[in-house]
Design goal:
Layout (H helix, E strand, L loop, with lengths): L11 H9 L2 H13 L2 E2 H7 L5 H13 L3 E4 L5 E4 L7 H15 L6 H14 L11 E7 L2 E8 L2 E5 L6 E5 L1 H8 L5 H7 L3 E4 L1 H9 L5
Parallel strand pairs: 4-7
Antiparallel strand pairs: 1-3, 2-3, 4-5, 5-6, 7-8
């Protein structure tokens, strides 16, 4: 496949930037790498702020560069191509580069909801260990969410009485997500203050690490 580039440089960095050097392109590739084939609706759901027109433009761009394949199914779904699979090292490098900066971010409602929803999608099998439905109130910095966990399911809900509460800060959550601290250490140190059903809260926190 011949890749058309707009950079007047015979350089692999320039070619990579032509194919990948857009925020939404990289986030779409991240989602397809981490979660497998996705529908347009699924990609929009994962990326607040991404609109239909921009999604269409970025998908067209990535397909034209041979990074995505459209699957032949009743509803259009997209998957990484063989070439697109090579983005794994790029995403890993960006993850590792951004992790220290994540500790300086003040978490809000949207960020917390994304972290929980992403964990539910990617760590669903871990949730099969949950034996009964439980509601957990989670507060991280300025972000708050009411989370329902039941066998194989974790989602944001509203207007429920919680069985447990978790209060922590973004830097601690980032350390758990990055694998620098364990959930048990977070709880034992008091950096995650938990009341009520401690085991259910531990399970929720344990779904968040991505390493």
């Amino acid at each position: 496949m011949t890749t058309a580039v707009s950079f007047e440089q015979f350089c692999p960095v320039a070619i990579s930037l032509e194919a990948l050097g857009d925020r939404w392109s990289l986030l779409l590739l991240r989602d397809l790498l981490w979660a497998g084939p996705q529908s347009r609706a699924g990609l929009l759901e994962r990326n607040p702020g991404l609109d239909e027109d921009t999604l269409t433009e970025r998908i067209t761009h990535l397909v034209s560069h041979g990074l995505l394949d459209q699957l032949d199914e009743p509803k259009a779904r997209y998957a990484l191509s063989e070439r697109g699979e090579g983005v794994s090292d790029v995403i890993t490098a960006l993850f590792n580069f951004g992790m220290p900066m994540l500790e300086d971010i003040v978490v809000n409602d949207w960020m917390l909801a994304y972290a929980i929803a992403d964990a539910a999608r990617r760590r669903g099998l871990d949730l099969l260990e949950v034996e009964e439905r439980v509601i957990i109130s989670v507060t991280v910095d300025e972000g708050h969410a009411l989370v329902e966990m039941s066998p194989g399911l974790m989602r944001i809900v509203e207007d429920h009485e919680p069985h447990a509460t978790i209060v922590t800060v973004g830097s601690c959550l980032a350390a758990v997500i990055g694998g620098d601290r364990t959930v048990d250490d977070l709880i034992a140190s008091g950096d995650a203050r938990i009341t009520g059903d401690v085991e259910a809260a531990r399970v929720l926190l344990a779904t968040l690490p991505t390493h």
